[in-house]
Structure formats: C-alpha cells, structure tokens
Amino acid sequence: MHALSYSDLDAVLTELNRAKGLPNAHYTSQEVYEAERQAVLFDNWSGVGFAKDVPEIGDVKPIDFLGMPLLLVRDKDGAVGVFQNTCRHRGMILVDAPRKIEGALRCPYHSWCYSLKGELKATPHVGGPGHNTHADIDKSELGLVRIRHFVWHDVVFVNVSGTAPAFEEVHADLIARWAEFEQPVYYGGPESSFQLEVKTNWKLAIENYCESYHLPWIHPGLNSYSRLEDHYNIEAPSRYSGQGTEVYRQLSNTDGQVFPDFDGLSAKWDTAAEYVALYPNVLLGIHRDHFFAIVLEPKALDQTVEHIAIYYAQPEAAGPAFDTLRNKNAAQWKSVFVEDIFVVEGMQRGRHGVLFDGGRFSPAMDGPTHMFHHWVASQFRPQQQAAE
After folding, report:
1. What is the pLDDT of residues 323-365, one digit of tens each?
2. How far is CA 349 from CA 123, 135, 200, 201, 356, in A?
3. Rg of the chain over all Cα atoms, to the nearest angstrom
4. Using CA atoms, how far apart are residues 311 and 291, in angstroms rounded to an integer?
5. Which residues share a beta bridge with 323?
6. Do residues 156 and 51 lie in contact, with contact meaning Cβ atoms separated by under 8 Å?
7. Whose CA is closest to 292, among 259, 253, 270, 321?
8. How far apart are CA 153 and CA 244, in angstroms?
9. Model-level pTM?
C-alpha cells in the first residue's frame, strides 16, 4: 500500500494496551496522503464548511476540498446544496469567489446557465449561431453534479463517493447522545469565526483534540478550573471519540451577564461540556449556552487550515446586547486553540524521525486517540482484501 505495507497497520488494529500509533508514512508520505483522500475523506462524511457561509437565497461559495472544486449554494427554497463547481460543457470552473446570484449560475466560458438547484437552463448557440438548442443536447441530463451532503448543527458534511451509509445512520449514536441539543443554533457573527493555519497533517489536530491528557501542560489556564481529573473519555468505535468535563464554568461579564441556555436541558449540562472529534475531520464542542465547530481542511500533507465557528443557544445571544461577551468568548477559545499549535506542529516534525515506530498509548488516558488511529487504519482494510 503506497509506501506502506498493510502489515504496518496490524499494530494499530489491536487492543489499546498493546497498540502502536499510525506509522510515520501517514504523516510524511505524499502517496499515503493521496490514498487517504479517497479511503478516509471522500468515502466518508467529511466536513467542508458551514451553512452560515451562504446565509441568504442566491449566496454561493466555492470550496476547494482536497483539490476537488465544490460549490456551496443557498437555493430559492432556502435549502443548502452542494455541487461540483464544474460546468458540464467543457469543465470550466463556474464560480471563483463568494457572491450572490440574482438569476442563474452562468459559466464564464460559453454562458451555459444553471439554476440554483443545479438544473441546466440555457445553452446559448449550442446548435450554431442563434440556435440555443440541439437535438443531441438533453438539458435534463446535463445538470450540475450534485454532491451528497447533510447539514448538522450548521456544519456541511459531504460524502463525495456516495457510498457511505446515510449520515443519520452513521452518526445515530452521537445524535442520540446530544438529542437535547437538537435545537436551532445562532451564529455569533464575524467575530465568532476565525481560521488558524497550522503546519501539520490534519490527523494530528484530531488526535490532540481527542484527549485531555495534555491539559495541565498545554492549557494551564483552562486546567486551573476544569482540571484533568474532572474529565472523562468519550469513545464510540468507528464513529467518534473525545472527552468531556464535569466542570464547565459559564463565561460572564463584569456585570454578571451570561449567555442564555438551550431550552429544556437536563441537570447534567448545568456543569458539563463535551468535546468530540466526529470522524474524519470535524471537531465539535457543546455547552449549555453555546456550541462550536471546527472543520479541518487538509491543504497539503503537512498543512491544515482550521475553520472555527461559534454558535449560541438563543437568538438574543447573537444580538448587540451580547457583543462584548461574544467577543470575550471568541478570544478565549482562540487562545485555547492557539496553545495547541506548537504541539501539533511539533508532532509533525517529530514524525520525520525515521526510527519512530508510531508510539505507544496510555491505556488510561489515550483511548479516544487510539480509537481514531484504529478507525483510520480500518478504512484501508477493503483495499487490503481486494489486493489479496
């Protein structure tokens, strides 16, 4: 397998107390990176953006997903759609920057036009000058290629291959776990969204997020009130993993203002919060009064962009009365995420140690991280069986 034998994964696909981490090639080999593109990211439900990025009817936003051009669209019915950002005529990119479409999506090359639902509506001069139809051009067969997608908590997930089970089936366990939070969320506005460019393989950001083991040394401020011993592991094999805390302290202003809560929460959430890596590339954090999502965009083997968006439980929390508190919350979370950068970049550099064997896991603390490694390795098993 692409600079890596399948036997190298056997040490990952075993019990936690004996397992090693993914081999170096999963972080340093371009061939393995490209193999993961299909087996790990295109064949599963991967995050590519946020519905808030196309807030109004006619809004479109181009997305580059591992080199594949996608187009996020808010159609005339107010629904989010995802299409391949490629004209069906000669393969021209349709949209090269976010914009609002007043009428139709028009290809800048030969002016073929599509509706916001992807239907091919016009083919100027396709039958010769002045002839806009041709018997051999069936517009009903030449709509934009729709990408299978699902929107959950405003995160837009896609399954490029179209082969994964339904999102609701794959992630039924987490949907049930967080059933109390199946409520509208309200984007906090521009100050509640930011990006971090990190010189690391995307998987290392997942691995770090999964565990609380590093809190005392990397996040001393956070650990001062939500201590390591206040945390617990969250493990759902083949689906997600992460950590929770039994000590969540609501942020407040000097006048005591706090964000309003989600409706009807059980007492557990008075003081609890949970942080989950939803495989393959989305990080979620849920609290009584706000929610955040991080979509990890692999830009290269050792380059990742973290797209962060923060949402609130009630519409008033996204309004002007809470501007100061929202800014404070965004700044606090950004400082936490920035503290992790040197760690994930350091692990990326460390993976070039050719004698590193994948490392070992703490049986007590690293279960969620091992679970992610195990899942990534398992995505290559169908390839292995085909090769055999």
Report:
1. 999 999 999 999 999 998 999 899 999 999 999 999 998 888 8
2. 52, 59, 8, 10, 12
3. 23
4. 5
5. none
6. yes
7. 259
8. 19
9. 0.95
